[in-house]
Request: fold
Amino acid sequence: MTAESLASVAAHRRPAFSLGRWLERGGVFAWLMVLPPVLFLVALVGYPFFYGIWLSLLNRPVAATGTFVGLDNYINAWNDPVFWQVVLNTFVYTAVATVLKMVGGLGLALVMNQDFRFKNLTRALLLLPFIVPTVLSTIAWQWILDPAFSVVNWTLVATGLVEKPGPSWLGNPHLAMASLIVVNVWRGLPFYAITLLAGLQTISPELYEAATIDGAGTWGKFRYVTLPLMKPVIFIVTMFSVIFTFADFQLIYVLTKGGPANATHVFATYAFDIAMGGGQFGQGAAIALTMVPPLALLILAMAIYLRPSKS
Amino acid sequence: MTVERRGFHVRFLKLWLPLGVSLIFALFPFYWMAITSLKTNQELYSRKVMPLVVHNPTLKHYIDLITETNFLEWTWNTFIVAVMSTAISLIFGAMLAYPLARIRFAGAALVSFAIAATYLVPQPLLFVPLADLINKLGLGDTLTSVILTYPTLLVPFCAWLLLGYFRTVPSDLEDAARIDGASRLQTLIKIVLPLCGPGFISAGIFAFTLAQNEFLYALIFLTKTEVRTVPVGAVAELVRGDVFYWGQLMAAALLGSIPVAIIYSFFVEHYVAGLTAGSVKG
Reply:
């Protein structure tokens, strides 16, 4: 290439201002791309969040304009014995279901991490409870636990384990909570099992060989190889699961609607009852927002935990 | 011989027994849906008949479900809503993910933070203000209300997943295209997107199943039968007063689950890839 043609290329490449060239600047292009979705999320997540905070400071029946009442809705919740029952229920539900899903999911992942025929088919079938719409599978559970025609009770009576008519799974406060936890575990355990299985498959077999040479047995290999390497995966899966179990709505709404006598009400169902059933938007918004501090703590823990691994 | 038998016992205890129990636990509710939906009412509400099998199979509940309720309309609504919100989520997700994956720009950290924060916001936190806003916008009882709000749940996930796929495209390819005179947009559409097909399928399948699964917003925003989705229609209209139409409920639950299950069965690997991407790569 001659010097002349190089010069002409250089001149050609430097117009005074061109929209096309401006659009090609990294920062401009990037912001033009991200701006529509960012505005969308601001409008439908960011704005409603702050609007919800504003609503929670109002006495606001559904079909009327609100009056500002300051923190009254929060004070009402504080003085409401049902609210404290809701707090307790939510913590019990979240904690027990999470532990069962974590332990069961890890167990199932370890079982699945062996070689056997039809492994992919088995994995696909085991994941079904997680992908089928929750409300629809919960309706099936409601029928399984029906007070009069429960198949569980039929089996228990038929095998002579209990007297007729058998326990009322959704009618007794403690059994109702236990039933909800079982259904939640049924739905969520496959998620743990499959993600933890994917984590297990990334562990190099050489590490197990090395551990065997060092004299580790099955437990030793699990304790000193599997568990430490799986810790980050277990942690992330658990965090996500905790957030969504804590804020669960549909399973409880379908099975018990918070009953019997508020024994299974959690934040989401109680806020729904107050806002949609009772028509008190302000009070409902306040109850929903009381979920924020515990959720924020969880998310903060996750952020702190994830930071070092990013570098 | 004895060694072989012992091997078999160990394998039975370590593999087949726990696997079998898990499979029965996981699949029994679906079996129960299926056989309940095929039983006559007499058989359903009899305490004398052994309930674990069907004695006189009938399709009556399916026929009633289709002729006496708006089930087909609910199915169509669910499908439209899932497809539309998935499409919006994939487009917005890609628009967020590509610049974050490829371009260093001022504010990138803020955008990533916003995506992560949105991902962790559960619906129950926002349903009260959203219900009020949807009413004020006059969108109550329209499918638009859920088509607009579902992507708020799906966009962060799609963006996160696609970000990972965009990063796997060698930047040499893009540089070559740009040197040949392609604009950034042309490079994205002609070079990067075709290479990220699997990412779009994973994100799409995941978003589609989540959209089919959503209940709270649909329950609140859709109160008229002609705009309802399957989960809301089943819960709201197949239980009249205190009467549960169990046969029809189970038929609806099964039919409502089948589209998701079929799509999922074709793309299991993509679905699992999407499911595990976040937790394993993170």
Observations:
- The first strand of chain A starts at residue 58 and ends at 59.
- DSSP finds 16 helices and two strands in chain A.
- Chain A touches chain B through 93 residues (CB under 8 Å).
- The CA atoms of residues 271 and 277 of chain A lie 9 Å apart.
